[in-house]
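for the recovery benchmark. tokens below, seq after
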């Protein structure tokens, strides 16, 4: 039985990236201190609100979690470790931005010393927002680090004792070609990173890119599809095996925390804009860090968003994975869903090369191919019926 996961949202950034729609606010030392105090208080109260809570993954996302600095992150991890009864082999992930942090946040700059201190605190997985190794694409994305700084961050993390290192890449960018993608993948493969997350640029409302209509300067859908399939092939060739639409791992070192989302495993999200899936229901917390900091308990912040974890949702999430839906697991978790009907709906798409399948009711599976992932929303809707 898989244990729950815990997600902590750290909403602070020094600058808002033009493509980012995640909840974030401008960082100040005072705000980060107030938020850290509130987060630690929430964590210490968890045993009373959720008796017997035990987790085996803890993920600090953002925003820019590394911006808090080692001392605050150490306080948060200490509070979480005491309250959550983290398993001995727990995966503890920190998102970080490479490169020099501007004053007064210089102490959060990724360095050998900073990474060593984070590793000693208990973090054992780190994810860097590299995005590209092409200077013009980094400029387009508003990134402040260079390609060299992004790649060096992976080297420094490995030297500090991190064995699980992720690098983010973005696809479908202005001026992006097969050559620039190949170079980015090859350079990442030369570092100790054992995980890549490669996302197609999606221009969200309420972003600077949306206001600038940046899609007019980016590859169209057909060209994006070509770049995605090329990137998948390049990463596989470099030893990064695809296990989810946008995630690739060497030596099966997948993100255990993110895998919980796709396998409908319960998780608690703590922080403004965080979401939870708990006891078959989904919850969210309002996008307001000050309201979060002033609250007394997590429960008073969690707003219900309805039932979760039904059979259709299970199919939708599992079909994001390259291993897809397994017949035996489906029969055990959602016996109300007909395996035979699912296979009948899937058969035409197998012939079109959009999915792979084995109709055997005992050991069978239905799984999308990389081409299927490109049309996953409509394809999954047809499979669900």
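predicted aa per position
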């Amino acid at each position: 039985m898989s244990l729950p996961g815990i997600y902590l949202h750290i909403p602070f950034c020094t600058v808002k990236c033009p493509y980012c729609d995640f909840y974030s606010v401008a960082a100040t030392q005072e705000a980060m201190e107030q938020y850290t105090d509130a987060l630690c208080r929430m964590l210490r109260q968890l045993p009373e609100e959720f008796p017997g809570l035990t987790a085996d993954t803890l993920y600090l996302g953002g925003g820019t979690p590394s911006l808090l600095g080692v001392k605050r992150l150490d306080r948060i991890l200490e509070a979480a470790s005491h309250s959550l009864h983290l398993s001995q082999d727990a995966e503890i992930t920190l998102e970080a931005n490479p490169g020099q942090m501007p004053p007064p946040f210089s102490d959060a700059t990724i360095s050998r010393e900073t990474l060593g201190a984070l590793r000693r605190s208990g973090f054992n997985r780190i994810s860097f927002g590299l995005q590209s190794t092409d200077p013009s694409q980094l400029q387009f994305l508003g990134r402040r680090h260079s390609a060299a700084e992004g790649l060096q961050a992976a080297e420094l993390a490995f030297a500090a004792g991190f064995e699980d290192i992720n690098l983010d890449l973005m696809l479908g960018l202005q001026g992006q070609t097969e050559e620039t993608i190949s170079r980015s993948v090859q350079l990442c493969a030369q570092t100790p990173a054992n995980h890549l997350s490669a996302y197609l640029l999606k221009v969200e409302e309420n972003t600077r890119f949306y206001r600038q209509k940046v899609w007019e300067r980016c590859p169209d859908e057909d060209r994006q599809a070509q770049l995605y399939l090329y990137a998948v092939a390049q990463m596989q060739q470099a030893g990064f095996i695809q296990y989810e639409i946008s995630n690739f791992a060497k030596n099966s070192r997948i993100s255990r925390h993110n895998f919980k989302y796709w396998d409908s495993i319960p998780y608690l999200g703590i922080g403004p804009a965080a979401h939870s899936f708990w006891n078959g229901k989904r919850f969210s917390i309002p996008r307001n860090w000050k309201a979060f900091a002033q609250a007394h308990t997590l429960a008073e912040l969690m707003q219900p968003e309805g039932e979760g974890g039904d059979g259709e949702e299970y199919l939708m999430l599992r079909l994001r994975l390259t291993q897809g839906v397994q017949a035996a697991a489906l029969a055990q978790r959602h016996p109300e869903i007909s395996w035979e009907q699912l296979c009948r709906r899937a058969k035409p798409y197998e012939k079109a090369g959009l999915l792979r399948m084995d109709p055997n009711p005992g050991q069978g599976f239905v799984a999308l191919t990389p081409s299927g992932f490109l049309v996953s929303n409509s394809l999954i809707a047809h499979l669900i019926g």
